[in-house]
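Researcher: Here's the sequence for the chain we discussed earlier.
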Amino acid sequence: MKRIATWTCLTLLWLAACLPAAAQRTAADWEMDFDGGVMWYQLSEVGTLVVATKGALNGIDPQTGQQKWKVESMGNLAAERYEAIAGSPLALVKDKRGLFYDYQVLDLFTGKILCNSRDLGIANAMSAYPMSALNAVLIYGSNKMGKMVLLCADAATGAKRWEVEKFMDKISEVIIVPPYAVEGGKYFMLATSKNVFKVESATGAKVWEADFKNDLVKAGPGLKTGFFTLEEFKDRVWFLTQDNFTCFNLANGSYKWQPMKLKSPISNIIYDKRGMLCATSENDDDEKGGKGLIGKLAKAATDGNKARMMSLDYETGQPRWKEPLRLSGDLVSSAYYDNNSKIAVATTSEKGKNRINLLDLERGEYLLKDPFKVDGDLIDINMTPKGVMYFTTDELNILDVQTGKDNWAKSLKFKEGGMGSYKDGKLYIYGDGNFYRFDPATAEYTVIAEKLAFDGKERPTRLEAKADGLVVRSDQNLMKIDLSGKKVYHTYKKAPGKSLAGKILAGTMAVASMAMATSYAYTAGATKGKVSYSDTRYLESQQASWSNAASASFAEMNKRFKASVNADNAMAMLTDLDAGVGVVLLDKNNGKDLRGIVMGDKDPDYSIDEISRLVIYKSSRDQLKAYKY
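Model: Thanks. This is the structure I predict for it:
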């Protein structure tokens, strides 16, 4: 999912970057020096500011600047060896001792190391997996006797629940995907390079195992791998890698589907009532084929590296259609019509070409001889009484499903802008200084405001539909109109020096998101209708199930999670202030300054937490400053 995924990703990142500030001040609310320098810093979901230095990992209260805890054994910790566990107040830390590794679970609220794989008897930890449904962490490695051990530690207390020796046959047998809880967490699925297991969560005992050889699963954006279940079929579990797809009987491990060898990995699944619609990716054959003449021959053998769509019978896994259908690129969006018997599929290719086709789901046939080409990057498609609305960065129009042509003789075109946001079932669009409202129920659009351009020759980067109006922004411009089209305000702050496009975004990306709880909830909501409901259910269950752990740290994290609901109410801009370069925080409701923070740095290293209403600024190699707003 290239174009639309990028658009969604930027939407989530801007949510984390947009926040408030008041009178211009150089004095911080607190500042703190760290011996040995600040290597990296991150605000956790429980609210603790985690700061890594050469000498220790530090936990700071972001409201007061007081040190809550200090773990000297985690000094000089590289960022890639620290993993905040999503939906929890915990972190997984990987510590290297020569040729060996330890995994430690750290409570970010108290600074307590809940468990250490070495203390639990594992001499060399090979992998560790947080499991929210079990409120536990699974650790795999060798013990002091050199025997391989699978161990389960309680996430709240760090106590060992169980361990099983010789769970796998050989040291070369490794876990290839994260374990997956089934049947309400009573059991979990585990896949290795040689077998698939069903395991009893309370004891670690194997319920069954199936011989199923697999290569290591490669990470890939937009690719679907691992286990999944569906509510309609409680007796089975599906298992998907880049190379294989199968389904097991949950009771005994027998195959419900015979293993299917995939020519290309699956990137999207639509759970259609007739069969599982699986779209493969167009980009995997490049890796398999290599470069040069050999690569070209390999690509030719795989039919030109084309993506495919197939419909698989839920009971047998057998294809329902005569043969898979070619896709013009990776599937990015879809919309049912004609009593759900047909579907519009939108694709984008690696070359950036975007197309739509219409598919008869019963016959497995395209209804258009050639895919319908659209200009610009696809943002969304939606069904209307007059056909398939398609909205791109360049145009808005409706594809007539009867004729295969545009319903409107002339598209609504955008040279700049081409961004939108839904509110109360209507799509609001900004483009070329104009605001539009499109109603899917009538398949018509209305111009609600015209010629509202930005200053500084800037192009808009984001449109948000609020309760009382529309807010559109760029790096140095913020504008709001009410839903009738009347301009509420327009605020412009000149950038200091040359173009600073992306500086605010870069500042937010310099460390991990400072509002993970907010983005987590947003993602779970945003995926509904866009991806399979099993994906959505997984995102929501992660946060909900971790919350079941009975500890003060989880209770504190939940308070912060609830506070995230009303967090997105302002944005930040870099600009010249009276006393030097700094950040101005603007109220999205009225466009007024909340606070100006003088930093004296045209490229500051800072991040913003909208939940705590705080700006964290790395003012020097050894110092962090905090500004409340």
